[in-house]
Amino acid sequence: MGIMDSLDKIDLKKADPALMSERIENFPEMCADAYQVSQQYSIPSYYIKVKKVVLIGMGGSGAANDIVKDLVSETLSIPVESIHNYVLPGYVDAETLVIVSSYSGETEEVLSAFISAYQRGVKLIAITTGGKLKTLASKYHAPLFEFELKACPRAAFPYLFTILISVFEKLGFISDFGATFPKLISTLEEARQKYGLSSPLFSNPAKIMAQKLYGKLHAESRIKSMKTAKILLPTKSSLSLITMQFRAWFSRQIQLISS
After folding, report:
1. Which one of 45, 153, 155, 231 is most buried, counting C-beta atoms within 10 A?
2. CB count in 10 Å sphere of residue 254
């Protein structure tokens, strides 16, 4: 079976036991569900008076934070920072809103930062499926945005991203997200139709790119005879973290393929 045939006849049970392809195919539905979930929760009105926002998350949760930060930074009149470790910046105080995201609710760095933020008297919001973070949010009387999903952490991106954007809308930091959300879902559905697994190779730009890159990407220096490909990812400054996340993910997949 040639590469052109194999791209349209992949045995996903063997090639993708974690079902990530299924999660990606369901991206529009997951975003829609996440937005519905976010509408069930409220935020105290006095939260809108904060002067700074700090987003805290690791891994997939941190990726969602980074991308939201990129998208809103140019329009917000207050600074937004995304943190990926235990330590809170020195400027975090009572006028700061700290939003922590953890798919499992058990991430050590996130829990530590959440406790430290509470001790500084900041305003808190938690986004999670449960775990210790849910318990702490209840203990600290912090608004909790809880969702349900059984998958690997990175598959939760549609929930973490959409809920966080909805939080910014509820705070009045961005506008019209709810009004434009149906268009976003429509765009995602169109992208799935064009780039999804069911779209045949001859009309699928993603599969065509995969075909062109086949055999040209590697992570092991011992493969020196292989002709490698160079991929350039130009972007505008406001989307730099999105490019960085894509590059990190892409590099990780190459390592997995070559190992």
Report:
1. 155
2. 14
